[in-house]
Amino acid sequence: MYFIAAKLLREAGEGPSIIVSPLLALMRNQVEAAARAGIRAATINSANMTQWEEIQAHSGELDLLLISPERLNAPDFREDVLPQLAQSVGMLVVDEAHCISDWGHDFRPDYRRIALLIDDLRPHTPVLATTATANDRVVADVVAQLGEGTGVLRGGLDRESLSLNVVQLKDPTQRAAWIAQYLSQVEGSGIIYCLTVAAAHDLAEALEAAGWNVAAYTGRTEAEERERLEQVLIRNELKALVATSALGMGFDKPDLGFVVHLGAPSSPVSYYQQVGRAGRATDHAEVVLLPGPEDERVWDYFASVSMPEEPVVQQLLGALGEEPVSTPKLENAVDLSRTRIEQALKVLGVDGAVRRVKGGWVSTGEPWGYDHERYDGLADARGHEQDLMLAYEATETCRMVFLRRELDDPTIGDGERCGRCDNCTGNHLSVEVDQALAERIDARLKAPGVPLSQRKMWPTGSARRGKIKGVLGGKALGRLNDVARGPALAALLRDSAYRPADNWRDDQWLTRCVAVLADWDWDTRPAAVVALGSADPGRTEMVASTAQALARVGQMAFGGVVQAGGAEVEARNSAFRVNALDRYFDYTGVSVDAGPVLLLAGEVDSGWSATVAAADIAERFGVEVLPLAFASRA
Question: Rg of the chain's alpha carbons, rounded to an integer?
Answer without folding.
Answer: 26
